[in-house]
TrEMBL record:
Superkingdom, natural source: Bacteria
Name of the protein: Uncharacterized protein
Annotated source species: Colwellia echini
Amino acid sequence: MHKLDSARNKTDSIVNSFDVSLMSNAKWVKLLNLLSNLNLDGANATVKLVWDIDIRSFRLDKDLEFNFDYYASSMESMISGYPKGFYDYKEIEWLNILAPSETIGLINKSLDKVGKFCVKQTTDSIQILAYKNT
């Protein structure tokens, strides 16, 4: 079996261990389009991948564009750490954004315009969950 196929099978096995999947590729694209159109340059974004214990930085700036940094089924060079390259959206367990309370409020209000999301929010952060166990 090819290494990539083996890695994808491992990811699928981890993803299937969650009780609920809350995001699809189309929903990720809508979310990234929304976030890239907001002025979030001062925000600190991180992600947790399902197969990794590290919390990685996530590039979230006004220069993100559909078919440039993110695609219909994956993203390129937006997540720090090793390995780098294309990541399938299904590999993201959650996205967290740390920012001033006004920015978090703007993000929260804007989310309703593109869909329903499972979020955990404080005054200075918002976490968008892709998976959860009940």
